[in-house]
Design a protein that fits this description.
The protein is mainly beta. Among the domains are: 86-133; 136-225; 310-395, Hemagglutinin (Ha1 Chain), Chain: A, domain 1, CATH 3.90.209. The chain contains four helices and 24 strands. The chain has helices spanning 59-77, 86-91, 290-293, 295-300, and strands at residues 100-102, 108-112, 129-134, 137-141, 145-148, 158-164, 169-172, 177-188, 193-196, 202-204, 214-219, 223-225, 233-235, 242-244, 271-274, 282-285, 310-312, 323-324, 331-339, 344-349, 352-358, 364-372, 377-383, 386-395. The strands form seven sheets. The chain has a five-stranded mixed sheet, with no helix packed on it. A four-stranded mixed sheet has the order 5-7-9-10, with no helix packed on it. The protein has a four-stranded antiparallel sheet with strand order 17-24-19-22, with no helix packed on it. A hairpin with a 5-residue loop joins strand 1 and strand 2 (108-112). Residues 254-259 have low confidence and may be disordered.
């Protein structure tokens, strides 16, 4: 049953005992008659009466044993893990699988994967020791090419890569099952950075610095990203349901405007329209050609376009009858009408009265006009004496 409140052991028992009052260390095998050892404890002779030739237990042994035990208790109670010890590793024929040690720098906790492991985990080529945790960041400066990390170098959870790249860079990490690293690509230059194992595959890490780290992990053979990639394909062409291609700085590739030399070279004051091939590229046209290539399209869809003319439609129009503009663009309607005394005429576009006239004196003629948007109905409603339409013209 665990002790609810274990006593505080801040110093070992007999810590201040002089050399004549403590046997330290206690020997593994018996070293003298009647003295304690780890293999024999207190020997049988210390259990016999002195009258029968027995030897009483030595108080120095009690101090030494209690000193050894409480030294361990004080160390563990202080929250410390043990570092690698070569003599201890030899004495026990190597550390058992599952052993946990701390590094000598106090920044790493090592985990042992095999029985009989006598190698030093802090050594550069330590076998079967993997880091459970390492505090801090390991910095790598590169201008390109391949940089191979040792197990000790790759133990840090954050790898900061910097330098002005003059070629593509590769960081090789020893293959070992590992929950993950954060890779900070703080390099400059229009080149790639790939993190991989020496014989396995890896992933590209985009530039972005500390604000945009990339998470990776290793399955013991290859490097993978910690986030599932988007299912959408990346394409430079105007393909539906794909993502636009970006460079290694994360910027959209504006060079798509420059696929045909001077024809599509972006310049100040140029106007860009979609390429005739509908391939997702833009084609440059000069400003003098703007009205010839772009403006007619706009004007043809508006009032007064190049293909609109005034047409006499008197034979096809009458009062109190609704008509609809189905031309696909706005039209202008103008008509003349003769009214009797007290009569009135109103031109409606949709449900809105947009033009109106009345005759309060002698019989006379009137002219009304309005613009009718595409798809709207229009009609002339007359009240009172009506003598007829004089004319009806439409700009269509």
């Amino acid at each position: 049953m665990p002790v609810p409140n274990p006593p505080i052991i801040s110093v070992p028992f007999a810590d201040a005992a002089g050399g004549t009052y403590i046997q330290n260390p206690i020997p593994v095998a018996p070293a003298a008659t009647g003295r304690a050892s780890y293999t024999e404890g207190f020997p049988p002779i210390t259990f016999q009466p002195e009258t029968a030739g027995g030897v009483p237990p030595d108080g120095r042994d009690f101090n030494g044993i209690l000193f050894a035990v409480t030294s361990y208790c004080a160390y563990v109670q202080g929250g410390q893990l043990f570092p690698y010890n070569a003599a201890f590793a030899t004495a026990i024929s190597g550390y058992k699988a599952g052993s946990i040690l701390r590094s000598t720098d106090g920044a790493t906790i090592w985990f042992n994967l095999s029985d009989g492991n006598a190698t030093d985990p802090d050594g550069g080529g330590a076998a079967n020791w993997v880091p459970l945790y390492t505090y801090g960041t390991y910095s790598i400066v590169t201008t390109g090419g391949t940089t191979t990390l040792t197990a000790a170098q790759s133990r840090y959870g954050v790898l900061l890569v910097s330098g002005a790249l003059v070629s593509n860079a590769v960081i090789e990490i020893p293959p070992a099952i590992r929950n993950g690293w954060l890779i900070v690509n703080a390099t400059t230059g229009a080149f790639t950075l790939t993190v991989k194992t020496p014989a396995g595959t890896g992933i590209a890490v985009a530039q972005g610095g500390p604000a945009s780290p990339t998470g990776i992990w290793c399955n013991g053979a290859n490097i993978y990203g910690t986030q599932t990639p988007l299912a959408y394909a990346i394409d430079a062409a105007a393909t539906p349901n794909t993502l636009a291609l970006r460079d290694n700085l994360g910027q959209l590739l504006a060079t798509r405007l420059n696929q045909s030399s001077t024809v599509e070279n972006p310049t100040i004051g140029a106007v860009f329209v979609e390429n005739a091939g509908a391939d997702g590229f833009l084609r440059k046209i000069s400003l003098p050609d703007f009205s010839a290539q772009l403006a007619p399209t706009v004007l043809d869809n508006g009032l007064g376009g190049t293909n609109q003319t005034w047409q006499n439609v008197l034979a096809f129009r009458n009062i109190n009858t609704a008509y609809t503009n189905t031309t696909g663009r706005p039209i202008s309607v103008s008509f003349g009408i003769s009214l009797g005394i007290g009569a009135a005429a109103t031109l409606y576009v949709g449900v809105s009265p947009v033009a109106w006239c009345s005759n309060g004196g002698a019989n006379t003629g009137h002219t009304l006009s309005a613009i009718v948007p595409d798809g709207e109905a229009y009609e002339v409603l007359v009240t009172g004496t009506y003598f007829g339409l004089n004319n009806w013209a439409e700009l269509r």
